[in-house]
Amino acid sequence: MHSKELVALATQFESPLYVYDAEKIQSQYHRLTSAFSKVKTLRINYAAKALSNIAVLQLLKKIGSGLDTVSIQEVQLGLHAGFTPDSIIYTPNGVSFEEIEAVARLGVQINIDNLSVLEHFGTKHPTVPVCIRINPHVMAGGNTNISVGHIDSKFGISIHQMPHLLRIVENTGMHINGIHMHTGSDILDIEVFLYAAEILFEAATHFKTLDFLDFGSGFKVPYKKGDIETNIEELGKKLTKRFNAFAAAYGRPLTLAFEPGKFLVSEAGFFLAKVNVVKQTTSTVFAGIDSGFNHLIRPMFYGSQHHIENISNPKGKERFYTVVGYICETDTFANNRQISEIKEGDILCFRNAGAYCFSMASNYNSRYKPAEVLWKDGKGILIRARETFEDLLKNQILL
Ligand SMILES: *Cc1c(COP(=O)(O)O)cnc(C)c1O
Q1: Cα–Cα nearest to 229, from 21, 31, 38
Q2: Which residues of 324-340 are buried (b: 16+ CB within 10 A; e: fewer)?
Q3: Which of 16, 316, 363, 369 is the most buried (most CB within 10 A)?
Q4: pTM for this one?
Q5: pLDDT, position 228
Q6: What separation in Å is there between the alpha carbon of 268 and the centre of ligand 1?
Q7: Between residues 150 and 26, which one has the greater pLDDT?
């Protein structure tokens, strides 16, 4: 999107504002499906937690995506957006047994990541198909080294627990129709991903009734210059070859599934905020915006570096700024960042604001959550109104 279009949207819908470029979401989706075009049945389940606005869910459904969910509320949002239960997978961690049962009753594919839950569920509902989440204990160590790690992770059933897992499946007579891994941000390069995939293939040989293998996500997108980006095309080539060979030998048609969040929506998002104050101090120049970690917490929470542009003055002379928010806490978005000269009233644009930005927003300092706009066919469509004072009062009870 161009600076001019973004400035116009900030004027029309006011700041702070989230803008999502529909075309970018579509092109990322197609990049992924093209990379795996030689796989007979491919399933992309968009990870709803990255950006859960129902209009974005609708858009993803329209282009053919399924949905990956982590709570019954995300399942309900998906159903509300028009996803059919069989196009939703539910991969929770640490939720109640009752919630898992309720989601299974909706006809959604459940994915279990704990042996005691598996045993309980299999005993009670032996005919409900279940996917199992495996923890392959693989993470990147150094540049290309593969190390076995993450034994402390709370996610998944350890690959080393396979004998116990198989005994539970046998004893309960339950139906396992998929196996899954999602190692998250640990997997930085393709070789590591493929190494973990081999562990999943090996695990899959123990089950005779699988319909799908789900390789989760963990795809990287660049945030700042020099960042690693997952080479999807190369991964597609290499994993397709391995998957097709495995599927041919397996003897049953198998679907290859992924559940990307960040890859699909991160770069499609722009966060626009207005500069309230430019404050020269003894050590830096602060640019204070009409937002804070209540709207965009990733820089403070994960140390992520979102590229920041002054879209009101894109061609100005660059100066060093410390960009901060208006929250009564340390809420630094960027330190000593070179940005085109800033005046009070200018609009700053934060890139990569599609994934884990609005969905992690709060009302801290009793501020309203921003509005959200979908940029589609050259027009901005409001897909979430800015909150109002009524929203802050909702559910509160005066004495
Ligand atoms: C969060 C999550 C994803 C998406 O991860 P990204 O890094 O955003 O692609 C996929 N699968 C599961 C189970 C998740 O919890």
Answers
A1: 31
A2: bbbbeeebebbeebebb
A3: 16
A4: 0.95
A5: 78
A6: 17
A7: 26
